[in-house]
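Hello forum,

I keep getting stuck at the same step: I have a sequence, I want structure tokens, and every attempt I make locally crashes halfway through. Rather than fight my setup again tonight, could one of you with a working pipeline run this one for me? It's a single chain of 149 residues.
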Amino acid sequence: MTDATPSHVSTSLTLHRLEFDLETIRATRHPVHGRLLMAKDVVEAIGYKVKTYTGFTLNGLKVSEANRITLAREDFDTSGKKLVPTFSTATFLTRAGLDELVANAAAKKVKTFGPWVADVMENGVPKRKPKVERGPASEVPPEGPPWED
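Reply #2:
Ran it on my machine without issues. Output:
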């Protein structure tokens, strides 16, 4: 067997519920994009009201096409006691999509949502390294550097 994917790994998606500040956000783990969060749930959890859900533009909040994944009910495994989707299709956001959304949001809950996302999302852009503070440059003595004779 030359295939790198083990045969026992399921390729169907399963739907999960994550809790954020008394709100439920539906999530899944995509085989290519990693963990995804449902866009509608995220927008409502950070304090916005979703009136229309076309093209995922809300009050100036925009998420690029590359960071949105549209999934259908049929994409999910509902066997056993797994959560059954209540939508026919829904937009899910990648980690980069969540970062875009948070960057454009003005809702007060964004301040607590950002750290929560960092805890539940393992994929996406790496965390920035802290900036190295440099002290003042050492002064060269009037006679020149010690290595020059």
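The radius of gyration is 23 Å. If your local run keeps crashing, start a new thread with the error log.
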